[in-house]
Amino acid sequence: MVGRVGTVLRAVSSFEPTGATTSAVAHLAGLPRPTTHRLLTSLLDIGFVDRDRNGGWLLGPELYLMGETAAPRYDVTQVAQPFVRRLAVATGESAFFSTRRGDETVCLLREDGSFPIRSHVLYEGIRFPLGVASAGLAIASFLPPREVEHLLSTDLTGAYGAAHTPEAIRARIAQTQRLGYAVNPGLIVEGSWGLGAAVFDHAGEPRWALSLTGIEQRFDDERRQAMGERLLQEAHDLSTALRAR
User: Fold this and answer.
1) Residue 8: which of 32, 34, 40 has the closest Cα?
2) Which of 29, 84, 109, 175 is most exposed, with minimal Cβ within 10 Å?
3) How far is Cα of residue 30 from the mean position of the Cα atoms in its chain?
């Protein structure tokens, strides 16, 4: 029961801030619709979820209060914010900071650069499986082989297309290990490219990632290499800052 509640809450969070139907939550959680509705109704009674005027499910006020209480122990966004802003200013692209949460990444920060045409694939709160999008690929590429094989055992092609077969992800992991940074050549939304670099904790584990997204025309070979090198430098400096914290 506890596991199902957690799965439902994570599913609801994936639809913030627009809200989700019961059917959409059930589909993402992998649960029958009646079971999902029963759990959502119980969570509504205790304030863990809420409903908007159209009946869509959202995270509730009690989760906000609990998060505020826990934030001092877990929140690293204040440390990361200057690095994200520097990347956005230096490149003109949208810059992001994401964290690993189990087999997913969660976007925590977004800072838009000066270039007027932007990619809207990423926003605060969105989740992707590890190995999908540049941040998740950057983190996955520096995990122990056993964890990588576990990730590759999940079929991602249904949700993310034929470019996300185990063989294709394995090839991108090898490329990331060679370059140091991950490249997403428009695999989620055509024409929207991304670069990602892993950020490491005090134990040397890839726990977070910095990333950049923009339109394909801005990610030609020469500029992509320059942005990748800048991304790696900022990721290294952020790793150092977070270890000191």
Assistant:
1) 40
2) 175
3) 20
> Quick one: pLDDT at residue 64?
84
Angle of the 221-244 helix axis to the 77-91 helix axis, nearest 10: 160
Domains of the chain in sequence order: 2-71 (1.10.10.10), 75-244 (3.30.450.40)
Residues 180-236 pLDDT 10s = 999 999 999 889 999 999 999 999 999 999 999 999 999 999 999 999 999 999 999
8 A C-beta contact, residue 160 and residue 186: no
Q: How far is CA 48 from the centre of its chain?
A: 22
* Burial class (CB within 10 angstroms; exposed 0-12, middle 13-18, buried 19+) of 30: exposed
pLDDT over 70 (residue 120): no
Q: Which residues, including other chains, have CB under 8 Å from residue 47's CB and lie 6 or more apart?
A: 60, 61, 62, 63
